[in-house]
Design brief:
The protein is of the alpha+beta class. It has one domain. Helix content is 23%, strand content 34%. It has a six-stranded antiparallel beta sheet, with helices on one face. The chain is globular and about 30 Å long.
Length: 106
């Protein structure tokens, strides 16, 4: 995790959705949903549950990590990140955020 220190600090979002999950991050849509699914393999312990890319407007990646379920959804010009259990620690959410932030710098 030493590469985390090289990235600028990130601010997490804490928006609760109707289903009780937490929307915790937005990222620019600067890469494909396929790239997200492929990049997930580098997050040690993460397990892909579902991947769907249905053209330009619909895409999602569902995965588990450290016992929590996450979703990444296409939100127009951004990807929106959610965790099913809003009590998931910010430390874990930041680990996920920084992992996918690496796609922006590749």
């Amino acid at each position: 995790m030493s590469s985390l220190k090289q990235l600028r600090p990130m601010k997490l979002i804490d928006v609760r959705t109707a289903d009780g999950s937490r929307h915790f991050l937005r990222m620019p849509k600067a890469f494909s949903a396929q790239a997200i699914a492929e990049h997930l393999t580098g997050l040690e312990g993460a397990r892909l549950l579902c991947f769907f890319a249905g053209g330009v407007t619909e895409a999602y990646v569902d995965f588990t990590y450290q016992g929590y379920r996450f979703q990444i959804r296409n939100g127009g010009q951004e990807y929106l990140f959610f965790v099913d259990d809003p009590s998931c620690s910010d430390v874990l959410l930041l680990a996920v955020a920084y992992h996918f932030h690496q796609l922006l710098s590749d």
